[in-house]
Write a structure and sequence with these properties.
2 domains, alpha+beta, binds zinc ion, DNA Binding (I), subunit A, about 20% helix, 6 strands, about 180 residues
Length: about 180
């Protein structure tokens, strides 16, 4: 499935979509094509590689830090937390295909721990079982560095796009 980089009307990276979605945005007049993938030898269709939305997106300004009044935040989703933590256990640093990665609540939910960037970390299943329903103090486990929200959201997204193998040379000039 060909992936397409979606930019806001001010050319900030917003998301990645598949080419069908991109095509529907283009034919509906909601987006313009900035870059295309090279046409395949046997096909004449040039597929969009980078598109730009014509209207300001609700998330626009997030990356430039323009809307300080009510900045929309990246969700602490499993994908985002794993990426922040480098796809490695934050406790024992285990990583790789043989390691089962889970999300651990640093302060357990039963103790009032929230689903937040500061309270969710990547943990291998062994460490997660070892820690169980206890907090750091009770379990005697420690975290360095302390988990936090990405300091540079645009760079965070760009590195995630690259890591997930979804980036393309034609995208590079639009990614920080
Ligand atoms: Zn571990």
């Amino acid at each position: 499935m060909t992936k397409v980089l979606v930019l806001s009307s001010s050319q900030e990276p917003l998301n990645i979509c598949d080419w069908r979605r991109a095509l529907s945005l283009i034919t509906a007049g909601k987006a313009t094509v900035l870059e295309s993938y090279e046409a395949k030898a046997h096909g004449s269709d040039q597929r969009a590689a980078v598109i730009m939305l014509k209207r300001p997106h609700p998330l626009a300004g997030l990356y430039a830090g323009l809307d300080k009044r009510q900045p929309p935040r990246l969700a602490p989703s499993r994908r985002n937390i794993l990426h922040r933590d480098g796809y490695a256990c934050r406790y024992c640093k285990a990583h790789g295909p043989a390691v089962t990665l889970t999300l651990d609540h640093v302060t357990p939910r039963c103790q009032g721990g929230k689903n937040s960037w500061e309270n969710l970390v990547t943990a291998c299943s062994r460490c997660n079982n070892k820690k169980g329903g206890r907090n750091l103090e009770e379990s005697g486990m420690s975290l360095t560095p302390v988990p936090h929200y990405p300091t540079n959201v645009a760079a965070f997204r760009a590195s995630m796009f690259r890591k997930l193998g979804m980036s393309h040379p034609s995208w590079e000039k639009y990614l920080p």
